[in-house]
Amino acid sequence: MNRLRMGAAAAITALFLASCSASDPAPSPPADGGTFETLEALKEAVTAAGLACPELVLHNDAKYSASSGSCSEDLSLAVYSNDVSLESQLDFWQPIDRGSINVGMNWTVVSPDPKLIQQKLGGTVLQTGQ
Predict the structure, then answer these.
(1) What is the DSSP code string of 80-103?
(2) pLDDT computed for residue 23 by the predictor
(3) Which of 75, 79, 84, 86 has the fewest CB atoms lying closer than 10 Å?
(4) pLDDT range class, residue 99, cuts 50, 70, 90
(5) DSSP the chain
(6) Is residue 27 very low, low, confident or very high in pLDDT (cuts 50, 70, 90)?
(7) How far apart are CA 115 and CA 1, in angstroms?
C-alpha cells in the first residue's frame, strides 16, 4: 500500500512539473502593428524578429517621419509622429517602386523579408510602384 501511494505521489509530481515546464506560445503581434515610441524601439523589434541591424544610421530619407534610419542598403526604418505624416509618406512612396513596405500604426520598415516583419510585428504590407 505504501508503494502505491509513493507511485501515485511520484506520478502527480511528474505531471505537475511537466505542466509547469510547458511554455506558453509566443503572443501574436497586434494586427495593426501597434506603435513604437522611438526608432531605437523599432530597431530592437526588427532585430528580435530576426533581421540584422548592427548599426542604425540616422537619416531623413523618409521625409515625413519623425525619425528614420537604415541598418543596411535594403533595410530602413521610420517612425511617425501622427497619422497625417504616415499617410503623407505612404502617398509619396506609392508611385515609386520601393517594393514592399511594412506599415504599422506609426512606423514603416523596408526590408528584404516583408512577410517575416508582418509575422513578427503585425501591420500590413504595402506594394509600391503599382
Answers:
(1) -SSHHHHHHHHHHHTTS---EEEE
(2) 56
(3) 84
(4) confident
(5) -HHHHHHHHHHHHHHHHHHHHSPPPPPPPPTT----SSHHHHHHHHHHHT---S--EEE-SSTTSSEEEEEETTEEEEE-SSHHHHHHHHHHHTTS---EEEE-SSEEEE-S-HHHHHHHH--EEEEP--
(6) confident
(7) 59
Whether 61 shows a pLDDT value over 70: the answer reads yes
Question: Please, which contacts does 38-41 make with residues 24 or more away whose CB atoms are closer than 8 Å?
Answer: 38/67, 38/79, 39/67, 39/68, 39/69, 39/77, 39/78, 39/79
Question: Which of 37, 86, 81, 77 is closest to 58 using CA atoms?
Answer: 77
